[in-house]
């Protein structure tokens, strides 16, 4: 009887381990950490209000071109002072030295994630990583993401700029190039996550915009999934903005997204 009971307990522990490994028992904190809220607003006051309102309901705040151009690096410091983490989404694309030095300044600001365009090429990406590794030797540094193909793009828009590859194939080509250059992960549509995982492995970060809860409109995104679908596909982080900021109750909308992720 004792041996049988011990055997059942071992079986339950093994089953629990399998479930935890697959993410079936995701905690609220784990689900919240996956949500990056896009601070796509015009003013410092609006941004600070949303940071205060949502700091306990999202895992990170994305500061993009509009807000950074309007108010500058102070918004990054404000989020950090409030205890939040920052994805500085400036999508650098320039000559290698310029991108490397801009990325270094972004890392010095305390951003957790920064990004650049994979279409800038191997040298641009590799020099950026080398510059950050040299500056932060032995320390935790900002993780660098490569933007593959924007979620607003289609094969027609790619052909307009001379790219003849299908979107999915181009995304994988750019992800592999980024990994070869030492980049930590990519920004890509959730529809391409399984392809990236197969090509680049489980430790390569995948951040996905184009995520829309079932209660939200798709707006100008073309290649979208729900939060639950994106997490099941293997996304590490989900970038979500208007479905939260445009909701009558932003905190409630963020919580609904967390609950959806937990249930996936």
What does this structure look like?
This protein is an alpha/beta fold and 264 residues long. The protein folds into 2 domains: 1-26; 34-263, Alpha-Beta Barrel (TIM Barrel), CATH 3.20.20.70. Helices cover 50% and strands 14% of the residues. The protein is built from 13 helices and 8 strands. It has helices at 2-21, 28-33, 44-54, 65-71, 74-81, 96-109, 122-135, 155-160, 167-180, 193-200, 227-233, 242-245, 250-263, and strands spanning 35-38, 60-63, 86-92, 113-117, 143-147, 185-187, 205-208, 237-240. It has an 8-stranded parallel β-barrel with strand order 1-2-3-4-5-6-7-8, surrounded by 7 helices. Helix 6 links the parallel strand 3 (86-92) and strand 4. Helix 6 runs parallel beside helix 7 and helix 9 (167-180) packs parallel to helix 10 (193-200). The longest helix is centred in the first third of the chain and has 20 residues, at 2-21. It is globular, with a radius of gyration of 20 Å.
């Amino acid at each position: 009887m004792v041996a049988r009971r011990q055997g059942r307990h071992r079986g339950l522990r093994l089953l629990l381990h399998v479930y935890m490994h697959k993410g079936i028992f995701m905690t609220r904190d784990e689900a919240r950490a996956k949500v990056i809220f896009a601070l796509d607003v015009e003013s410092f006051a609006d941004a600070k209000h949303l940071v205060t309102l949502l700091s306990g309901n999202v895992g990170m705040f994305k500061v993009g071109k509009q807000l950074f151009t309007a108010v500058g690096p102070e918004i990054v410091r404000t989020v950090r002072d409030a205890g939040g983490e920052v994805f500085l989404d400036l999508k650098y694309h320039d000559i290698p030295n310029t991108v490397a030095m801009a990325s270094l300044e972004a890392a010095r600001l305390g951003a957790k994630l920064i990004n650049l365009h994979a279409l800038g090429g191997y040298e641009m990406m590799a020099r950026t990583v080398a510059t950050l590794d040299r500056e932060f030797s032995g320390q935790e540094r900002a993780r660098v993401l490569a933007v593959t193909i924007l979620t607003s793009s289609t094969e027609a828009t790619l052909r307009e700029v001379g790219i003849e590859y299908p979107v999915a194939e181009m995304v994988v080509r750019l992800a592999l190039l980024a990994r070869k250059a030492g980049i930590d992960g990519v920004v890509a549509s959730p529809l391409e996550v399984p392809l990236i995982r197969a090509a680049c492995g489980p430790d390569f970060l995948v951040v996905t915009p184009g995520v829309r809860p079932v209660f939200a409109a798709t707006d100008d995104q073309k290649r979208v999934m729900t939060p639950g679908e994106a997490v099941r596909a293997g996304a590490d982080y989900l970038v979500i903005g208007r479905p939260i900021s445009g909701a009558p109750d932003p905190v409630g909308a963020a919580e609904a997204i967390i609950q959806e992720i937990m249930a996936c």
